[in-house]
C-alpha cells in the first residue's frame, strides 16, 4: 500500500519531469486541497524532494524545480566573479575579496571568470555555464535580475556594504 505522502511525492516528480529548472511548483495549500490531506503529509513529500535536491524553496516565493542532476555533474566548475565596471581587480577594495574567493575555492579545482559589470547597460547574465556567481557591490537596480538567477537554482552570493537589503535575495 502506497503512503499518502508518497502519492504526493510521485505527483510532484511527474510535474518536475514535465518542467524545466526554476519552474514554480504547486503550493502546500494547493496540494492539501488537491489531495485532501493535512499540511504535515504534504510537507513530508516536499521534505524528501528537498533532501534529494530535486527542488528548492524561496521564503515567500514558493517551491521550485532545481537544476537538473545531469547539468550539475557536467557543468564546468567555474565561478563567475562580477565586479563594478571601472573597478580595478587589483585595487585595495577588490583584490582582497577576489583573492579570498580564489583561496577559498582553489583546492576544489574551480576556474574563475572575472567580469566587469556596468549597471546602466541592459545586459543578461548567462549563469548556465557556471557553478556559481559571486557579485561584488551590485547596484540596487540589479537586484531583480539577481533574484531571477537565484530562483533558477544557481548558487549565488554577494559582497555589498548595504548587505542587509540584499541578503534575502541571494541565500538558498
Top-tier CATH class of the largest domain: Alpha Beta
Helix content: 40-55%
Look up the CATH topology of the largest domain: Rossmann fold
Q: What would you say the CATH architecture of the largest domain is?
A: 3-Layer(aba) Sandwich
Instruction: Return the average pLDDT rounded to an integer.
Output: 77
User: In what range is the share of β-strand residues?
Assistant: 15-25%
Number of helices: 7
Number of domains: 2
Derived structural class: alpha/beta
Distance N to C terminus: 35 Å
Strand order of the largest sheet: 4-3-5-6
| Rough outline | elongated
Order of helices and strands: HHHEEHEHEEHEH
Uncertain runs are: 70-75, 161-172
The CATH superfamily of the largest domain appears as: Response regulator
Count the beta strands. Answer: 6
The value of Rg in angstroms is: 19 Å
Largest sheet, in brief, is: 4 strands, parallel
Descriptive labels:
Rossmann fold, elongated, disordered C terminus, 172 residues, 2 domains, two-stranded antiparallel ribbon, Arc Repressor Mutant, subunit A, alpha/beta, four-stranded parallel beta sheet, 7 helices
Description:
The protein is an alpha/beta fold. The protein has two domains: 66 residues, Arc Repressor Mutant, subunit A (Orthogonal Bundle), CATH 1.10.10; 96 residues, Rossmann fold (3-Layer(aba) Sandwich). Helices cover 41% and strands 19% of the residues. The protein has seven helices and six strands. The strands form two sheets. Strands 4-3-5-6 form a four-stranded parallel β-sheet, sandwiched between helices. Helix 1 packs across helix 3 and helix 2 packs across helix 3. The longest helix has 14 residues. The C terminus is likely disordered.
Amino acid at each position: 500500500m502506497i503512503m499518502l505522502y508518497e502519492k504526493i511525492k510521485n505527483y510532484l516528480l511527474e510535474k518536475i519531469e514535465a518542467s524545466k529548472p526554476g519552474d514554480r511548483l504547486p503550493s502546500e495549500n494547493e496540494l492539501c486541497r488537491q489531495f485532501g490531506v493535512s499540511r504535515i503529509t504534504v510537507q513530508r513529500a516536499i521534505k524528501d524532494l528537498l533532501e534529494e535536491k530535486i527542488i528548492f524553496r524561496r521564503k515567500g516565493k514558493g517551491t521550485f524545480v532545481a537544476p537538473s542532476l545531469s547539468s550539475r555533474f557536467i557543468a564546468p566548475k567555474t565561478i563567475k566573479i562580477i565586479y563594478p565596471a571601472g573597478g580595478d581587480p587589483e585595487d585595495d577594495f577588490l583584490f582582497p575579496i577576489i583573492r579570498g574567493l580564489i583561496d577559498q575555492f582553489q583546492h576544489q579545482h574551480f576556474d574563475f571568470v572575472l567580469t566587469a559589470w556596468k549597471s546602466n547597460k541592459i545586459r543578461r547574465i548567462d549563469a548556465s555555464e557556471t557553478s556559481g556567481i559571486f557579485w561584488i557591490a551590485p547596484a540596487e537596480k540589479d537586484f531583480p535580475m539577481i533574484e531571477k538567477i537565484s530562483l533558477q537554482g544557481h548558487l549565488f552570493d554577494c559582497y555589498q556594504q548595504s548587505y542587509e537589503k540584499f541578503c534575502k535575495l541571494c541565500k538558498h
